[in-house]
Each structure stands twice: as structure tokens, then as C-alpha cells.
Write a structure and sequence with these properties.
heterodimer, A: mainly beta, 3 helices, about 50% strand, globular, disordered N terminus, B: 6-stranded mixed β-sheet, 8 helices
């Protein structure tokens, strides 16, 4: 995974993100290399780093109405294992949102390792949506390292639609008081896919809150692993930290390993965790069928209903609707195997 | 319209229906009464196609078809509606979405194009008025956070939307106060035509003050022990079931 690889081919013709969401500016990352920098009025920019990876920056006190979509994909121009590091800098008092999409354009066996350093400075507001949709032989590991200063607010919503082995790690340090970190995730896995989520939420100072809501739907022989740890240090009084992980197993051969962990050294805190795994609600299915809704459709409705509360966290209506449609077509099995860009998202 | 002949059904090893025969014609309202555990809810569930019950003998003919051969959704599309005793909560599926899906599945079955948004909204408004339901309900999850009475009204609302040919109401009156019961009854009376039929399952005679049945059946220990006109309900109210059971 040490190979550093720099290559900037022309954007493959077949990759067309046809309908960018209104109010969204796009930038492309090919095999870890940003193709050209982007600067948006309102103080947001993204530039390539010297090797590979990129730096995103929301300038001090900036308030950017437009959101940036960074589409990062692997293609057959570089099939080696690659690793790169990106920085997301949300400067003091800034307010911005970013959509990070990862795809694969060819069916090669890809391995990608990525570190995303996220720095949320004092009073900054950051909104990040991550969408991962890769093909059956793509392994992708992302480590998000977050440092959150005082009075900051960050929300990350991860939507995982497809991929062979997708691993997301979150190492969060809440370093300043009165901050809020909201991590949500949704994973849809089938076939032999697996999704791994590891979270360490470190509450280092008093008066902060954090929330984690991760939900998954597992079919066939797929696997999901969730390890969520909340650590409240001795000084971090008045911490409020919540975590839940819920799983819907569609197939009897799907497996989920969930490990909620609380490590609390302070004595005046409010922390909860909950983890469940379950099967479809037969009563609800019968209720829907008794209204003429076919079994297949009823199951789909129930799955959509299951993930609804995660999607609801995304406050950009258009994006949420788009993701909802994507999830629906994914659950209908409409893009289980990939052609060109595995996505028909845009 | 509906012909039930010698219907036997069990759950596991336990036989619950032990030979039920009922004949319902279009334009009729039938009431089924009976003490707890007599098999009333089982009968309605079997008619709607719930697979937890196994039909071991007998036949059910509906509009000339073998009803027992059809899946629950196929029965619904053919016009069978079950009003649940305990309506199910489905968080995350809004009433609006739920009804729209149901209506469109029904239309697809009839080779009709999907309903337009305008038509659907108009229909929702009209039918919600039938059961005096607040429009804020439509955006909420199906039955989520509804009171007992609201859930039952939602059943009648769904019935009005789907305009069934045969509606089976399983203890729709249980847990309702008198005002809610009047609304439910008005809904039924409003939807009644010479072409459809209702089977109303109830514990009490009270509902039958508002929904006048053509035939009243008493179900006991998995069998119909008595069928008669609406006066039977009054007699049951007065004398209980013992005189029927012991006779």
C-alpha cells in the first residue's frame, strides 16, 4: 500500500456526471490525483497536493452557499494499490458543505487506502456527505482523523452503496468546548461484500456532545462489522454522547458483528449506546400486502423505511432525494454490477 | 360473492376453525359475534391470507375464484380488504406513500396508468373527510404515534381509498369511544353499495346500533352455532352466549 502514484489522464469520456446538483461545483480525483484546482466564490477551494491527494479549504469566516462535490474514482489507467492523504480544513467561523463520492470506472481489482485529515476550527460549521459506490473487486479503506475545536459543529453522513470491502475508520478528538460531532452511516451490502466501520470518539473537554447513528441492510452472505467506542476523559464533564447501530438481515447467511463500547472516566455525563440486529417485520409485511402491495414492493418499502432516519439527517433536500432514489434503485438490484462508472447516480 | 364451506384452520397443532360455513351476497352486511377465543380473528386472518394459519379443510369461493389460492396482495387487488384489530405501525413509511403505493399496485393490476399527483391528493382529501381525519396525518409514518382511535379511523380511511368489494372489519370497534365508533360506522355506511359486502366482527352489540347487519352469526369454538337476523345481536347482548352454547 506504499506505492505513490501520480498520473493525470484525460477524464475518461464515458464518465459523465450528467446532472450535477444545482448549486454544486464538481472536482475530479483520478486514482488519487486531483485534476485541476477549483475555487468557488465564497471562500472555498480545493487544490492538489504535491504528490497526490488534495487540500480542501473553507476560508476563515467564509460562508459558502455552493457546495463542492469531489468525485474520486479508480480506473484502468492505474490498477496498482494506491494510498494518499487528503486534508479538509474548515477555518475559524467558516460554514461549508462538501460531498465526497468514490467510484470505480473499470472492473480491475483495486486497493485504495486513504487518510482524510479533518480540521474543524473554532466556531466552524462543516457538513460532509460521503458516498461510496464501487464495484465487487474494489477494496477501499478510509481513515477520517478529526480534530474539532471549540464551538464547532461537524456532521458526516456516510452512504455506502456498493464495494467489495469498504472500511471506514473515524478517529475523532473533540478538543474544544461546546462542540458537536454528528456521525451517521448507512451501508447496503449483498453478495460477498463486507463493510467495516470503526469509530473512536474521544471527548477530551467538557460540555460537548456527539451522536452516532449507523444502520445497515445485509443480504446474501455479506458481512458488516461495527465497532464504536466513546471515550469520555476525566475532565470531560457534561458530555452527552450517543451511539446506535442497527442492522436488518435479509438473508439468514448474512452476518453482523457489532461492538458498542463506552469508556467513561468523568462522573457527570449522559451516554447511551444500543445495537441491534433483526429480520424483516412479518406483521408489517402482511399489513402492506393486505393492502395490495406486492411482497417484493412491501419488502422494499420496509427496507427504505429502515434507513429513513439516517437519510433524514442530510439536510440538503435535493441531495437527500437523490440519495433516496439511488438507495431505492440499489435495493431494487438495478445496479448490482457495474458498467463504466458503477453509478447511475448522476 | 363469498362462499365459505366447512373451513378448518389451525396454527401449529391447534385447530381453531372447526368447520365454518358462511354465505355472503353482494349488498349485505354480516356480523360475526362470539366470545374471546372462538376464532373470529383467525377467520378474518385466513380470509385475508395470513400464512401463520394453515387451512386443513374446506373451501372459500370469492367471485367464483378459489380465494385460498391467492396471495394476500392478489386478494386485496381483487377487492378484499381486512380492517385490522391491531393496525401495524410502520415507521419511515408515510401514510401518503403507503396509500399511493397501494393505489398504484391496484391500478397496475387493472391495467391503469399510475394515479396523477393531483387526482391522488383530491382523493386523499375526500376520503380523509369521510373519517374526519386531520390532514397532518398524511405525512406521518403509518400508524406511528396514532392513538387507538386514530389507528382504527386510519383503517376506515384506507378502506375508503381502496374501495373494496368485500371488507372484513376485525373488531374495528374495540377500544373506541362512542364518538370514534360513530365515525367508523358512518364510514362503513357511506361506503356501502348494492355491489359490495361487509363482514363486521365485533364483541359487542353496540356497533350494530350504527351498522345494521342483515345477518348475525355467532361463532363459538371454531364453529358457527347460530345465524339469524339483526335481532340475534340484541338477544346476545341481553342473555350472553351461554344459552346458545348450552342449547
Amino acid at each position: 500500500m506504499e506505492t505513490k502514484y501520480k498520473y493525470t489522464p484525460e477524464l475518461p469520456e464515458e464518465f459523465k456526471c450528467k446532472v450535477p446538483l444545482p448549486g454544486t461545483v464538481q472536482a475530479f480525483v483520478t486514482n488519487g490525483v486531483l485534476r485541476g484546482g477549483v475555487e468557488i466564490d465564497g471562500g472555498v477551494s480545493v487544490f492538489a497536493k504535491s504528490q497526490n491527494g488534495f487540500t480542501y479549504e473553507a476560508a476563515k469566516e467564509s460562508n459558502c452557499k455552493e457546495s463542492l462535490q469531489i468525485i474520486s474514482f479508480r480506473d484502468s489507467n492505474s490498477t496498482q494499490d494506491i494510498s494518499f492523504e487528503n486534508d479538509l480544513l474548515f477555518r475559524k467561523g467558516s460554514d461549508s458543505s462538501i460531498l465526497l463520492c468514490t467510484h470505480t470506472l473499470s472492473l480491475d481489482k483495486f486497493k485504495t487506502e486513504e487518510v482524510v485529515n479533518i480540521d474543524v476550527e473554532e466556531g466552524a460549521k462543516a457538513n460532509i456527505v460521503v458516498m461510496q459506490n464501487e464495484h465487487n473487486a474494489s477494496e477501499h479503506k478510509v481513515t477520517f482523523r478529526l480534530n474539532i475545536a471549540a464551538d464547532a459543529h461537524i456532521q458526516i453522513n456516510v452512504i455506502i452503496l456498493h464495494g467489495a470491502i469498504l472500511e471506514n475508520n473515524f478517529e475523532v478528538n473533540i478538543n474544544g468546548e461546546h462542540s458537536f460531532c454528528d456521525l451517521n452511516g448507512l451501508y447496503l451490502v449483498d453478495g460477498k461484500q463486507s463493510v467495516v466501520t470503526n469509530i473512536t470518539m474521544n471527548h477530551l473537554v467538557p460540555n460537548c456532545s456527539s451522536n452516532q447513528l449507523f444502520k445497515g441492510i445485509l443480504d446474501d452472505t455479506s458481512k458488516a462489522m461495527f465497532t464504536g467506542r466513546i471515550v469520555v476523559s476525566r475532565d470531560a464533564q457534561k458530555t452527552e454522547a450517543f451511539q446506535s447501530n442497527h442492522n436488518l438481515l435479509i438473508s439468514p447467511k448474512a452476518k453482523v458483528y457489532t461492538r458498542p463500547q463506552l469508556e467513561i472516566y468523568a462522573d457527570d455525563v449522559k451516554c447511551t449506546h444500543g445495537a441491534t440486529s433483526g429480520i424483516m417485520d412479518q406483521e408489517a409485511l402482511f399489513y402492506m400486502r393486505s393492502r395490495g402491495i406486492g411482497e417484493h414492493e412491501a419488502k422494499l418499502l420496509q427496507q427504505l423505511a429502515f434507513v429513513y432516519d439516517v437519510l433524514e439527517k442530510i439536510d440538503n433536500d435535493r441531495l437527500r432525494q437523490r440519495l433516496n432514489d439511488l438507495i431505492e434503485s440499489r435495493l431494487r438490484g438495478e445496479f448490482s454490477h457495474c458498467t463504466n462508472c458503477s453509478m447511475n447516480c448522476c | 360473492m363469498l362462499e365459505i364451506k366447512g373451513l378448518h384452520a389451525s396454527i401449529g397443532d391447534k385447530e381453531i376453525l372447526k368447520g365454518v360455513s358462511i354465505s355472503v351476497k353482494a349488498g349485505e352486511i354480516h356480523a360475526i359475534m362470539g366470545p374471546n377465543g372462538s376464532g373470529k380473528s383467525t377467520l378474518s386472518a385466513v380470509l385475508a391470507g395470513k400464512d401463520t394459519f394453515e387451512v386443513t379443510a374446506g373451501e372459500v369461493t370469492y367471485k367464483g375464484m378459489n380465494l385460498l389460492d391467492l396471495s394476500p396482495e392478489a386478494r386485496a387487488r381483487e377487492g378484499v380488504f381486512l380492517g385490522f384489530q391491531y393496525p401495524v405501525e410502520i415507521p419511515g413509511v408515510s401514510n401518503v406513500n403507503f396509500m399511493k403505493t397501494a393505489i398504484n399496485e391496484q391500478r397496475k393490476f387493472k391495467n391503469l396508468p399510475p394515479i396523477t399527483a393531483a387526482e391522488f391528493l383530491k382523493m386523499m382529501r375526500e376520503k380523509m373527510a369521510v373519517v374526519d381525519m386531520d390532514s397532518s396525518f398524511s405525512g406521518r409514518g403509518v400508524n406511528v404515534g396514532f392513538s387507538g382511535g386514530e389507528k382504527k379511523r386510519n383503517e376506515i380511511f384506507q378502506m375508503a381509498m381502496l374501495d373494496p368489494i368485500l371488507a372484513i372489519l376485525d373488531e374495528t370497534d374495540s377500544g373506541l369511544d362512542i364518538d370514534a365508533m360513530k365515525i367508523v360506522a358512518a364510514g362503513v355506511n357511506n361506503l356501502k353499495t348494492p355491489n359490495n359486502a361487509f363482514i363486521v366482527i365485533t364483541h359487542y352489540q353496540r356497533l350494530l346500533d350504527y351498522i345494521i347487519p342483515d345477518v348475525v352469526h355467532v361463532l363459538y369454538d371454531g364453529k358457527i352455532i347460530k345465524s339469524a337476523g339483526k335481532e340475534l345481536a340484541l338477544e346476545v347482548e341481553e342473555r350472553g352466549y351461554d344459552w346458545l352454547i348450552n342449547s
